[in-house]
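Its record is quoted verbatim for completeness.
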Amino acid sequence: MIAGVVMPRIVGVAEMIVSQRRGEHLITYALGSCLGIAVHDATVGVGGLLHVMLPQSSIDPERARAQPAAFVDTGVPALFRECYKCGAKKERMTVYVAGGAYTGANDQDHFQIGKRNLVALRRLLWKNGVLVRAEDVGGVLTARTMQLSIGTGEVTLRYGGSERRL
């Protein structure tokens, strides 16, 4: 902290942070085809932010064990479990999603990672009865920055020179 300024905690690629510190802000940068997933339970004041890269851990089970936050299918359950350990309840949690952009050049996106990440996330959330409150997903590759305020649950998104609340 510098003279009363609270510095945000940075969530790197394939990382997650869960917090109960009311004044804390979690932030992740450069969401292109990756997804930023923010969750918050206002009743107990817990929130978390996850930056996933790929949809399925089956492509690299060893990495998934060492770094579950790299994949949608292992990272999202890990995020929810960590929030539950802090007293969060699934039915009270709000979920926000950003990223999943189209990364191809000249109308070609052979791997469609952004789209596949979104499909995997939606399938996982649907199977578990979890709804997304707000999202900013898809589109042409734009580096989105996503921030979660633990105290308020407010999620902001910055890209293209503007900032907006999700």
Residues 9-165 form a domain with the 60s Ribosomal Protein L30; Chain: A; fold (CATH 3.30.1330.200). The longest strand covers residues 25-31. The chain has one domain: 9-165.
